[in-house]
Amino acid sequence: MGRQLTEDVEEFRTAADPCLVRDPARSTLLLTISESIRVNGAAAPAWFGYGRENGTAPVSAGFVQTPPLRPLLGPMPDRAARELVPVLRAAQPSLDS
């Protein structure tokens, strides 16, 4: 699965909104947190991520992380969640502690 990590809330929402609104109840926190950051900004840099099965597939996974909290995963295939762990650890080694 191809993933994109970004600090840009607009990029995240543009890419991930179609995935998130398909299941708004399970995506409530991702939608709410990203909208709050979009409107009010963030006290510290937030991380956003989204993934696709391939470069042309629709987004099928998303997450938000607002440090110091751990990443919050949205609805995603199990395989995507398993594959996300090493990507997040490589980007943020502090997640191991």
Could you characterize the architecture of this molecule?
- The protein has about 100 residues and is of the alpha+beta class.
- It has one domain (about 1-95).
- Helices cover about 40% and strands about 20% of the residues.
- The protein contains three helices and four strands.
- It has helices at about 10-20, 30-40, 80-90, and strands spanning about 1-5, 45-50, 60-65, 70-75.
- A four-stranded antiparallel sheet has the order 1-2-3-4, sandwiched between helices.
- Helix 1 (about 10-20) runs antiparallel to helix 2 (about 30-40).
- The longest helix is centred in the N-terminal third of the chain and has 14 residues, at about 10-20.
Structural class: alpha+beta
DSSP strand tally = 4
- Note the gap between the termini: 26 Å
Number of contiguous helices: 3
Number of domains: 1
Order of strands in the sheet with most strands: 1-2-3-4
Shape: globular
Low-confidence stretches: none
List keywords for this structure.
single chain; 97 residues; alpha+beta; four-stranded antiparallel β-sheet; 4 strands; 42% helix; globular
Topology (elements, then pairings):
Elements lengths: L1 E5 L2 H14 L5 H13 L6 E6 L6 E7 L6 E2 L4 H14 L6
Helix pairs in contact: 1-2
Quick description:
The chain is α+β, with helices and mostly antiparallel strands. The chain contains 3 helices and 4 strands.
